[in-house]
Design a protein that fits this description.
The structure is a single chain. The protein starts with 7 loop residues before the first strand and ends with a strand. The chain has a 4-stranded mixed β-sheet with strand order 5-6-7-8. It has a 3-stranded mixed β-sheet with strand order 1-4-3. A 3-stranded mixed β-sheet has the order 2-10-9. The chain is 37% helix and 18% strand. Helix 1 crosses helix 2, helix 3 packs parallel to helix 5 and helix 4 runs antiparallel to helix 5. The protein has a domain of 156 residues: Lambda Exonuclease, Chain A, CATH 3.90.320.10. The protein is globular. It contains 8 helices and 10 strands. With 276 residues, it is an alpha/beta fold. The relative contact order is 0.19.
Length: 276
């Protein structure tokens, strides 16, 4: 009998962690601080910026279309930024925060000037954390949150929109869109007929990407998820480089070279790296 509490849960972020560095995967997704029994997370300015912008835009999907831009989006953004301001955002000085905030503000202003699909109908997945059984036999669940599901009335279907706040394009081999495609297909009833990235730093509208093939995507993701499940079973999480970019910030936390600044929205211990 399937049991979601004993299952291995995988997502785009956790699978990406494993691909970058098994040790980073362990420290981000498995390890718990013996003192608090909580997982640990490290906040850095680019993550803080992305969190505030995503929170601001994604909150619109719960509103009726005609109300989303009735008031300035900046008010929502200011509240979101207040949650990551100062040390909680990993900012080392006011000037660094000022520059990050200016970038974030320009993204919000772009969305206000060019709301495009955000001003139209949207589908909201009811699950707080959408998930489905990727493999009951292997006891693996695939989970994750899709940024935006635009409703296409003419075809009674949806288009996935993923907001990007970074300065670089997503890797063409990224599993992000295939994972979102599978999640959207399995956790709501509308067919997925479009998928896109919206680079908020530079583009006034989402850029359509090629729809993934469901069968090959699911096989590729399941093969990787099985490797993660086996690593968890064996407790084998070794860094490929004996201390790489992905695991180094978390090793710094374990070594006492980071400062605890509270809890994040997932109830994890939130650290910022000490400024060495």
């Amino acid at each position: 009998m399937k049991d979601k509490y004993s299952a291995v849960w995988v997502s785009h972020s956790s699978l990406s962690d494993y691909l970058k560095c098994p040790r980073a995967y362990y420290l981000r997704n498995v390890y718990r601080d013996p003192k608090t029994n909580r997982k640990i997370s490290v906040m850095e300015p680019p993550l803080a910026l992305g969190q505030a912008v995503h929170e601001t835009i994604e909150s619109l999907s719960s509103l009726p279309a005609e109300e989303r831009f009735a008031t300035s989006l900046m008010d929502r953004f200011k509240k979101a930024w207040a949650n990551i301001s100062g040390k909680r955002g990993g900012f080392t000085d006011p000037e660094q925060e000022k520059k990050s905030k200016e970038r974030a503000v320009s993204m919000i202003e772009r969305v206000m000037k060019h709301p495009g699909p955000l001003a139209g109908k949207a589908i909201k997945i009811r699950q707080e954390l959408p998930y489905y059984w990727l493999s009951e036999e292997d006891n693996i669940i695939l989970c994750g949150k899709v940024d935006w599901l635009e409703y296409k009335e003419d075809s009674d279907s949806v288009r996935i929109i993923d907001f990007k706040t970074g300065k670089f394009d997503e890797d063409p081999d990224s599993l992000q869109l295939p994972i979102y495609y599978l999640l959207a297909t399995h956790t709501q009833t509308k067919a997925v007929t479009g998928i896109s990235y919206w680079y908020l730093d530079r583009d006034d509208a989402p850029v359509d990407m090629t729809l993934p093939d469901a069968g090959s995507s699911e096989k590729k993701i399941l093969d990787l998820a099985r490797k993660v499940a086996l690593a968890r079973k064996l407790g084998h999480f070794k860094c490929h480089e004996n201390g790489c970019r992905a695991c180094r910030p978390y090793e710094a936390v374990l070594a006492g070279n980071a400062t605890l600044v509270g809890l994040n929205t997932y109830g994890q211990d939130l650290y910022i790296l000490n400024n060495n």
